[in-house]
Amino acid sequence: MNTLTLSPTFLSDDFLLQTDTARRLYHDYARSMPIIDYHCHLPPDQVAADRRFDTITQLWLYGDHYKWRAMRTNGVDERYCTGDASDWEKFAKWAETVPYTMRNPLYHWTHLELKNPFGITDVLSPATARDVYDRCNEQLPDFTSRKLLQHFDVRVVCTTDDPLDSLEHHRAIAADPFGVKILPTFRPDKAMAAEDPAAFRAYVKRVEEVTNREIRSLADYLDALKSRHDYFAELGCRLSDHGLEMIYAEPYTESEIRTIFNQLLPDYDNALADLSPVDIAKFKSFMLVQFAEWDHEKGWTQQFHLGALRNNNRRRLREIGPDTGWDSIGDFQQAAALSRFLGGLDDRDKLAKTILYNLNPADNEVIATMAGNFNDGSVRGKVQFGSGWWFLDQKDGMEKQMNALSNMGLLSAFVGMLTDSRSFVSYSRHEYFRRILCNLFGNDVENGELPNDVDWIGNLVQDICYRNAEQYFEF
Predict the structure, then answer these.
(1) Helix (H) or strand (E) holding 236
(2) Cα–Cα–Cα angle for 436, 35, 122, nearest 5°?
(3) Which contacts (CB < 8 Å, 24+ apart) does range 369-376 have?
(4) pLDDT of the residue at 267
(5) What is the pLDDT of residues 141-173, one digit of tens each?
(6) Can you tell me the distance from the alpha carbon of 137 to that of 58, in angstroms, rounded to the nearest whole number?
(7) Residue 36 φ then ψ, to 5°
(8) Given Cys at both, which of 143, 154, 339, 453 links 149, Cβ 3.0 to 4.6 Å?
(9) Rounded CA gap, 418 and 388, in Å?
């Protein structure tokens, strides 16, 4: 077989580390730090069951819209992405695509994940595909979902959960601990989605069923949702999360919100509401404030993922569904609404710890400076510019985020990387991030821009890799 292995420079132990100082920082300080994955989409049922994967395809390709987008771009039919092709056929098509992903972060991630945990240093291609597939599959009995988390020294995982989730799997994990905390995150996007009145009406009915409460007013609805917020807290939840195009901060009166909500009530005698865009924005603004105040009351951290333009391909959305790779960066205006929203909460001393993630790199400096407006000394890094997210969690995106944060704020207070992934092998992204972080500091030292105090800088690196998150979230 014509097999290419990783070259002495590509993905070597010193991968991405361009200077001696960078290498010291990574190997002596960053490499062995544990991981706190405070935002991800890992399925808690698979952790509860300690899932065993039959093939590397199930572990690696199922649900991975990053890979699906690359395969489609390379001319691979949908059957091999989300369709009914066999696991081997899907893997073979991915292996066929990988050589054409050079300079896309998928090329790095693919080979990092083969190297760790599988110890495979072959370059994936059609020539190596069958051998790599078989060798990975042979090791899968040793890499169940729980064993993978332990392998990567993950200490805490925060999943992403709808307020109506039973959290039964989190309960099961808590009753059968294995050394990794698996905690829920409160993600109430559907609870404020007034732009789709039919779906919202159905959601309100589900709230009634789950909470065993009749909802006939806005107050009833808020009380029911608050009971779910309390329930999440009982299961160890420490964070909320919101996926938004932009922050909603439209002025409103409570009378207006009651009127809007009454139009959405699940009463079969009422026609579905035909709300105006302004009414929708007002309702979302009101709900965001409610959630933010509950988070502050409990000492949680609120996260806002801003700027995704979702479901662009309507035909594929109808055929395959959401979260299958048809989203992109949006160009929404963020600054004024963020200022109103954060400022309004701060005025009433109800601003919780907050992490802002942006998807458009044009907003890096906006987000970095906005965070600084509301850091009041009460908590170190109270308002954070979050890590490079989605299309930006690659080398260039991470460097730009960290450079903007360094220039406009304090990189030293940063809570670091997360996976934002559905895959149990995505923890190689933490290695990727740590190498990039150490390289930034190392280059500055050797350029004479920072003093050659490797011990001090090494401790800052360890803070960013782990300790800042440990202290900030108070797990």
Answers:
(1) none
(2) 60
(3) 369/408, 369/409, 370/334, 370/335, 370/338, 370/339, 370/342, 371/409, 372/408, 372/409, 373/339, 373/342, 373/343, 374/342, 374/343, 374/346, 375/409, 376/346
(4) 64
(5) 999 999 999 999 999 999 999 999 999 999 999
(6) 10
(7) -115, 115
(8) 154
(9) 9
User: Residue 30 gets which letter from DSSP?
Assistant: I
Tell me what pLDDT residue 134 has: 98
pLDDT under 50 in the chain at which residues?
Answer: 1, 268
pLDDT tens figures, 380-408: 999 999 999 999 999 999 999 999 999 99
Position 383 scores a pLDDT of 98
Sheet holding 301-306, edge to edge: 185-186, 239-244, 301-306, 353-358, 383-385
> Taking a C-beta distance cutoff of 8 angstroms, is the pair 94, 106 a contact?
no
What is the token pair recorded at 456? 């001090």
Name the nearest CA neighbour of 228 among 216, 212, 243: 212
Give the Cα separation of 406 and 136 in Å (integer): 40
Q: How many CB atoms lie within 10 A of CB 342?
A: 22
What is residue 272's predicted lDDT score, i.e. its pLDDT?
60
Task: Judge residue 175's burial from the number of C-beta atoms within 10 Å of its C-beta, 0-12 exposed, 13-18 middle, 19 or more buried.
Answer: exposed
Nearest CA among 422, 431, 427 for reference residue 59: 422
* CA atoms of 281 and 288, how far apart (whole Å): 10
CB 301 within 8 A of CB 472: yes
CA R_g for the chain = 23
The pair of three-digit structure tokens given for residue 115, joined into one six-digit string: 């190297």
Task: Round to whole Å and give the CA distance between 235 and 298.
Answer: 13
C-alpha distances in Å from residue 151, one per residue of 42, 154, 388, 469:
16, 8, 24, 20
DSSP 35-95: EEE-S----HHHHHTTPPPSSHHHHHTTT-HHHHHHHHHTT--GGGTTSS--HHHHHHHHH
CA distance 305 to 316: 24
Q: What is the pLDDT of residue 6?
A: 67
The two three-digit tokens of residue 239, written as one number: 């964070």
- In eight-state DSSP terms, residue 419 is -
Contact 301, 354 (CB under 8 A): yes
**207: how many CB neighbours lie within 10 A of its CB?**
22
Tokens read off for 240? 């909320």
